[in-house]
Amino acid sequence: MIRNEDEYKEAVARMQEETSRLQNHQASLEKEGLSEEQIKRLTDPMLSFHQQLVDDIDSYERLKRGDFDVLNNLYGLGRTLIGVRIYLNLSQSELADKLGVDQSQVSRDERNEYHNISVTRLNKVLDVFSTLGVTLSTQVNINSSNQKPSIAA
Predict the structure, then answer these.
(1) Is 85 exposed, middle or buried (0-12, 13-18, 19+ CB in 10 A)?
(2) pLDDT digit string (tens) for 10-60?
């Protein structure tokens, strides 16, 4: 996951280099007279790496636009918090200042995608985001086919 503009710029440059490298590699394999199947087998790993870069870049650009995925559970909450910071154009250092912690703490939290942080720290992050106009909301949906449990008296 790309977490800041420097990583984004690096990923874009790497993607451009990989695109050129892939095209040159395919052309040299064609010159060697390899079949399409052989070329595909030899270039699939490069294509896979290239596609991962494209996906990471696309994801970062979506976050910058404020295009967030819906959370169906809390497993994606960490990525969402990182995405909100990116959308708000806050550096890790700026978020740390607002939270009253060291930048290294925010870096650690993001590297771990906020797994195992305390509810208190999570609330502090959400409070900072709220002061900047972003609120996280939850919704409870109950499947109508589920029966309410009966409570014995």
Answers:
(1) buried
(2) 999 999 999 999 999 999 999 999 999 999 999 999 999 999 999 999 999
